[in-house]
């Protein structure tokens, strides 16, 4: 008996989804890489001014996405939209069974995916760059999501332009025009009431948008792009009026609300304080991880003020300025000056600035030489300027009046240093009782 092996029928290869080729090959990956590179280079050029602050990172990402990413997305969509014309396959595709809207979306959505992926990768890199030196706060997720929606809308709008305009220079000119237009809309001179329509306009670093602003911006950008797509490719072109109406409604709401689109964030209204020092030290809750550094930088100053009366209760750091019994902490923001990548750039200079804020004699029109010597002696004792030696040398090399001024300063410094601890505390208490006085007769002498 002969056994014959049963032959299994050959299975047909599994057909790939028609969008797969568009996603994995062609122009999309290059466009995504261009968006990633453009945003990353723009952020890296001034990284010291946003690293460590989540609100600053949000702001820089948003500006890069709106001012650079949107023109690039429009140009990418425009170039991709003219692909069939450059390949001379327009008539062939027009005869296919697929509807024009389906063909446009099949061509445009993979490009949208890559552009958004490129921006998402840039945003993730920015978050990682801030995470390791963050001063407090937490990432702002809604802003990048809104930016991604605007970029997706720009790609689809560019697709329509590319299919309508038969010119190879259309893409770069569209990008240049969008860059100039967005810049003028955002940074135009005068009272620009239409600025809220710009994809670049953002809140200040201590502010957050109202809850519906991201939704309105998405409806504004998405509605315009949707109207363009439907007007070009839908069988019933009147349908384009629906997204257009949504865009007009959202744009009107944005323009009429104006500055009311943003308000001070709840975190920026709070402070984190160390009450063990005199004065107490408070930093904004957005920078709470800097409190140990600030306390350490001011430790010499606060140590010398222990037991001294008539001082402000605390150094404060919140919007609106100090209360009557407070004094403003030297600024920690904007990032890149006092603070760089989560570290105080110059603790000695910061301590000097804090000491100078304890009296307001700088507001006096003209102080007497003896009053200048007293103030300088207090400055030297509490927290001298890092440049004090240079200033003294400049006075030595100047005229006779400046040399006499330096002599008075050195003598006052020596007298204050020679006092006993108890005597010096009593004298400093009397001095700070007249910290804002311009009248020499009311200020204790040395």
Task: Summarize this structure briefly.
By secondary structure, this protein is mainly alpha-helical.
Descriptive account of the structure:
This protein is mostly helical and 446 residues long. The protein is built from 17 helices and eight strands. The strands form three sheets. The chain has a four-stranded mixed beta sheet with strand order 3-4-5-6, with helices on one face. Strands 1-2 form a two-stranded antiparallel ribbon. The chain is elongated. The termini are far apart. The model has no long low-confidence stretch (mean pLDDT 87).
Low-confidence stretches: none
Number of strands: 8
Q: Summarize model confidence as the mean pLDDT.
A: 87
How would a crystallographer describe the biggest sheet? 4 strands, mixed
Major beta sheet, strand line-up: 3-4-5-6
Compute the separation of the termini in Å. Answer: 126 Å
Q: Which quaternary structure do these chains form? A: single chain
Characterize the overall form: elongated
Give helix and strand order, one letter per element, not per position.
HHHHHHHHEHHEEEHHEEEEHHHHH
Q: How big is the Rg?
A: 32 Å
Structure classification:
mainly alpha
The number of helices is 17
